[in-house]
Amino acid sequence: MPDTSEVRDRRGEWQPDALPRPSPLFSWPPRLAAALRYLFGREGFLFPYNAIYVGIATLAWLYLTPSMERMETLAFDWIALVYLRNVGLMVLVFGGLHLRLYVKRAQGTRYKYSDKWLATRDKRFLFGNQTLDNAFWSLVSGGIVWTAYESITLWAFANRIIPYVDWRERPVYCALLLLAVLFLREAHFYVTHRLSHWKPLYKAAHYLHHKNVNVGPWSGMSMHPLEHMLYLSGIFLHWIIPSHPLHAMAHIIVSGLAPAKGHAGFYKFVVGSSDTEHEKAIRAGGYFHYLHHRYFTVNFGTEAVPMDKWFGSFHDGSSEAHDAMLERRKRKRNVM
User: Fold this and answer.
1) Extents of the domains making up the chain
2) Does residue 299 contact residue 289 with C-beta atoms inside 8 Å?
3) Pairing relation of β-strands 268-270 and 281-283?
4) Cα–Cα distance measured from residue 8 to residue 113, given in angstroms and rounded to the nearest whole number
5) Which parts of 115-142 fold into alpha helices (H)?
């Protein structure tokens, strides 16, 4: 079978053979076997990435978060530690992917959606450099908003201002809620992202993120402060839903780290030999969202909670989906 991982169109764009599909979790009639494969499969919804993010959140709660007693009072010292932890996580995850894929170029353009590399002399970006621009907005704006939201939520838990649930008392509820957090985050992302494309919000804030048509690992959290406030606001669901601090931390840590993979610009990460006959690669995904950066008016959410399918903005990269998108745009222009 011929290798198609480097076959590109005239614009230098590469498309995976397996196009995005809505998850089977919300199919009707139910498809139990497909749903279980999707949830627990080797490259499914939970494994490896969401399991890794939740594992990071758990370790952060256990070892890198101040005690509840200390967090009863809002104080600069422990909030600064939370900020340094969050920045450290971004540097480790975003920077690690960027180093391998864009500095070392360890797999070249293999499985890369665009044959172009990140901009280095472009006046649209701060410092004229896309990576430096993206890192600045991620670490400064993103890090501050992330830390502010997390710190005030942990303070509220410590003072029992919001409903607190103990894992030892309700372990089944807490485990199921931890799984539900992953889906709540996906649904919240669709709603806030769709809202950010409302013309006034787009002009005020979201335009900054969309400077990144050709994306890299630092692009995912490169946002205007107003958009960071909107995107990371999912943590406040845990002011209403009875939760443990770990649930809130998992929610915002997944939100903070997952965009790196979704914006890496590669369909697969080659982890073994670069020899195509012997290589080992793990699915990175991100093509669904990459299409959003190409076309702007499609794929506001993810395949996991297929709200784009339900609300008519789904694009899987096929010519049929592309024609449907163009037809929607035409109808919108005629109405206006």
Assistant:
1) 34-116+134-189+213-280
2) yes
3) antiparallel
4) 9
5) 130-136
